[in-house]
Design a protein that fits this description.
Radius of gyration: 19 Å
Shape: globular
Strand order of the largest sheet: 1-8-9-2-7-5-4
Strand content: 35-45%
Structural class: alpha+beta
Number of domains: 1
Order of helices and strands: EHEHEEEEEHEEH
Number of helices: 4
């Protein structure tokens, strides 16, 4: 399994409760672009409309800009391929419990390109600050250990 793009902010801003695998409906040149690493999940999100899931605002830069159609939008809405039962359960959870759907990373499974989405709960500001403090304490401890062994 090779990961082509990660949404680093997702794990910082949200607490991931459940994860789902979804296929993505893509054009052929988009597949080549993703495999060459020209994809970004920054600022993207997932919505469910009319019992269909869509990936919004994910940018796939053209693999060969001169060979792409002129009306191609790199941030176009892309349909996600999920089972009807999964979509219905996700729709219920997002409406009742106030949860959101966040794209986590794009990867390949066999020769297919998949998207891992997470059912997430937004973190509070104090939880984010606490996470930053823990990270800084961990770094300082590692520096101290390193300096005692080398110095």
């Amino acid at each position: 399994m090779k990961i082509f793009a990660k949404n680093k902010r997702a794990y910082f801003d949200y607490e991931i409760l459940e994860k789902y695998d979804a296929g993505i409906e893509l054009f052929g040149f988009e597949v080549k672009a993703i495999k060459s690493g020209k994809v970004s999940l920054k600022g993207s999100f997932v919505i469910i409309k009319n019992e269909e899931a869509f990936l919004i605002n994910a940018q796939i830069t053209p693999y060969q800009p001169k060979n792409t159609p002129q009306n191609y939008d790199p941030k176009r809405k892309r349909k996600l391929l999920l089972k009807k039962s999964e979509i219905r359960s996700l729709l219920g959870k997002t409406k009742q419990q106030g949860l959101t759907l966040v794209p986590l990373f794009v990867y390949n499974k066999g020769c297919k390109i998949k998207l891992k989405i997470g059912l997430a709960k937004s973190k509070k500001k104090y939880q984010k600050k606490q996470k930053i403090k823990e990270r800084e304490i961990q770094r300082e401890a590692e520096r101290e250990i390193k300096s005692t062994f080398t110095g």
